[in-house]
Amino acid sequence: MPTVTVADLSGGDFLLDVREDDEWQAGHAADALHIPMSDFVSRFGELTEAAPQDGRIHVICRSGGRSAQVTMYLAQQGLDAVNVDGGMQVWEASGKPVVDDKGQPGTVI
Fold it and tell me: Of 6, 107, 3, which is closest to residue 65 (Cα–Cα)?
C-alpha cells in the first residue's frame, strides 16, 4: 500500500480526514477535507469534486488503520491515494497545527 509519513507532507498537499465527527470536532488539520469512513461510499462525490484533478490524495485517520482501508478503496477506483502513516497522532506529536471545529486549538482524540 502506498504510504507517506507526516514529515513527507507539504502545505499544499490535499488531505482527506476519514475519522468520525466527534474526532474531527475535537481536532483536525485546518485544510483537510472531512468525510468519515462510515459515510465514505455515499459521499464519494464530495471527494471527487474537492480533490485536485490528477492530484494525490493523502488519507489520514487517528493512527492509520481506517485511512489504509480508504486508501485501498481509492486505489481500486483508479485514484492516486496514499495512506499517512501514524495518522493524526503523529501529526499532532510532530507539532503540526490541530484545530477544533470552531478554528481554535484542538486535540486529537
Answer: 3
Is residue 80 within 8 A of residue 105, CB to CB? The reply is no
Contact 71, 1 (CB under 8 A): yes
Q: Can you give the pTM of this predicted structure?
A: 0.97
Beta strands in 18-98 (DSSP E): 33-34, 57-60, 81-84
The pLDDT of residue 45: 96
Rounded CA separation 83/86 (Å): 9
* Tally of CB atoms within 10 A around 16: 24
Task: Look up 101 and say whether it is catalytic.
Answer: no
Amino acid at site 93 = A
Task: Indicate if the pLDDT at residue 11 is higher than 90.
Answer: no
Residues 100, 27: Cα–Cα separation, whole Å: 4
The one catalytic residue among 61, 68, 81, 82: 61
3-state secondary structure of 14: strand
